[in-house]
Write a structure and sequence with these properties.
Arc Repressor Mutant, subunit A; 277 residues; 9% strand; 2 domains; alpha/beta
Length: 277
């Protein structure tokens, strides 16, 4: 979803484009009734800047961008109002955050496709190398995945800068596995990177939204539905969902290696003990 994309910071925007994003997030209902001229005037940017902003987010232009915002608001309006007016009472806020976390974890367990998990597990367990890509709010998920998967003795790296991602994917081949992480699956840079990977014959897995542009380009899609959130002080449930999927994949890959992992695990634990006082 595009509002979630903007909150997450998945798409790298220029200073002028960030001004537009701020206006969209502060009052999306107003934006869907605004002309492009009115929005450009309010953001104090040019008309071409608004068009570039929309195209960078994966739309043909401003009209299709407004249609997408309207569709998202129609299904999440009550939640948006709730999120933009967060109650400052601490106990209520704690309950709201914990409720979001719990419902997200349950949703992941109920909706993940076991066949897709098995296919992704087989690809990862037999990989010559594994690379994780994430931008914005998905970046920490990629870094967490690197931290977990290096323990299998497979070369693993994570990149959160799209310039580095573009260079790295250009050098990957059919022996490598690329895992792309993007909740919306509409981030221009990630989609373009997936296209390069496909042209190079790289095997790909995506943690993304079902039927998104990114999902249509990869070999295996692991998708979940997490609620849209638009308050920067509320943890993003999409990120929590993707972290949960990384944990699941780590467990299933570990099960593939079986007892072969025990010696390595014991060595890691032994070496870690030596670092502690």
């Amino acid at each position: 979803m595009i509002l979630d994309n903007l909150v997450n910071g998945e798409t790298q925007l220029s200073k002028s484009e960030r001004k537009i994003a701020s206006i969209v997030l502060s009052n999306p209902s107003k934006v869907i009734n605004q002309s492009i001229s009115a929005l450009s005037a309010e953001a104090d940017v040019s008309l071409p800047t608004v068009n570039r902003f929309c195209k960078k987010l994966g739309f043909d232009g401003y009209p299709s961008f407004k249609i997408q915002i309207a569709q998202e608001l129609s299904t999440t309006n009550r939640m948006l109002i709730d999120r933009f007016n967060v109650d400052k009472d601490t106990p209520d806020l704690v309950k709201r955050v914990m409720s979001d976390i719990q419902s997200t974890v349950v949703s992941v367990g109920q909706n993940l496709n076991p066949h897709s998990i098995d296919k992704a597990t087989a690809m990862l367990a037999s990989a010559k190398s594994i690379t994780f890509f994430g931008l914005g709010g998905s970046g920490p998920v990629a870094l967490d995945a690197q931290h977990k998967f290096f323990r299998f003795g497979i070369p693993v790296v994570a990149h959160t800068d799209y310039i580095n991602q573009r260079m790295i994917v250009s050098m990957m081949n059919t022996d490598d596995i690329l895992v792309l992480i993007s909740f919306t699956g509409r981030t221009t840079e990630i989609v373009k990177t997936a296209k390069i990977a496909k042209s190079n014959g790289v095997k790909t897995i995506a943690l993304t939204s079902k039927d998104s542009p990114l999902a249509k380009l990869v070999d295996v899609v692991l998708h979940i539905h997490a609620p849209l959130e638009n308050n920067l002080h509320i943890p993003m449930t999409s990120r929590l969902a993707h972290l949960a999927i990384i944990d699941i994949l780590s467990a299933t890959v570990s099960a593939c290696f079986g007892n072969n992992m025990d010696a390595k695990k014991d060595q890691v634990i032994s070496n870690l003990e030596k670092t502690r006082v």
